[in-house]
Amino acid sequence: MPEKSIEQIDLNQLIEKAISKPLVSHIYTADPSAHVFNDKIYIYPSHDIDAGIPFNDNGDHFGMEDYHVISMDSIESEAVDNGLALHVNDVPWAKKQMWAPDAAHKDGKYYLFFPAKNKEDIFQIGVAVGHSPIGPFIPQPKPINGSYSIDPAIFEDEDGSYYLYFGGIWGGQLQNYRDNIYSCNNDLPKKEEPALGPIVAKMTDDMLEFCETPKEILILDESGSPLLEGDNDRRFFEASWVHKYNNKYYFSYSTGDTHFICYAIGDSPYGPFTYKGRILEPVIGWTSHHSICQVEGKWYLFYHDSSLSNGVTHLRSIKVNEIIHDENGLIQTLSPYGK
């Protein structure tokens, strides 16, 4: 639910109708990236804190400082907080705002990908390496060369290739880039122009760098034209995720200021992807961020809302619900508080 509408709704009534409960309640968590490693569920969320910064469109009030890894033996079991996995003070190049992370496993090592602002207040993406899915993770001394913006999502294709998706507008700074080059003079396109797309790059074998120049992804409408900047209900804002179903690539994302989780389908990890619909309707709180993970043959949407904090946008809690792909491969839309 948009921040401005919080006072206009009965939060208690919504919370009672919620189709799921927070997985953990002793800390605030958000932006869950879920994976199954060694037959166990691991969730890599942001760790929300109250940084005492007023709400603004740049997201300065999201002042996260560290990461905790949440694990579950099964989808029905209790979620366990495995403690501190990485702190901003341990990252040589990072200054603040450890936003939405993701993780991957390759050749016995675990890789935590995370965004943070550098000493010049510009977001970049770092990677930290560990020998356990719960950390601790040791960060590389510098961010990934050529990385920028926020919301890294790492996808392993069936051939063993790994692709990193990233980008987010407004506070995520994607609008300041054109052709991977930053300028403070760049801004969002005009409403009648194609919207900015997320960015993707294939990773090197050691998972520490891009092995190619990052490319912008096209998200198309039903007629094959790029979604426009003014199409706020469908255009990309942030929160990239990719999963593969029936040999098709599903790119899902948040529309930001209209608060939907949407998806598009394509035939390549590079896209283009054709818009197909919504996965999740708006939640309590301004942001919406998710991941999609297959567990024991079923597909699940991991997401967050601000129900535990009674609507405080920067104090969120992760949740999970099953999602259904129909016979045509389309995803049935979830209403987080019922019909």
TrEMBL record:
GO terms for molecular function: hydrolase activity, hydrolyzing O-glycosyl compounds. Keywords: Carbohydrate metabolism, Glycosidase, Hydrolase, Polysaccharide degradation, Xylan degradation. Transmembrane segments: none annotated. CDD domains: GH43_CoXyl43_like. The record marks D151 as: Important for catalytic activity, responsible for pKa modulation of the active site Glu and correct orientation of both the proton donor and substrate. Pfam families: Glyco_hydro_43. The keyword Hydrolase applies. InterPro entries: Glyco_hydro_43, Glyco_hydro_beta-prop_sf, Glycosyl_Hydrlase_43_Enz. GO terms for biological process: xylan catabolic process. PANTHER family: ENDO-1,4-BETA-XYLANASE, PUTATIVE (AFU_ORTHOLOGUE AFUA_2G04480)-RELATED. Belongs to the glycosyl hydrolase 43 family. This is Glycoside hydrolase family 43 protein.
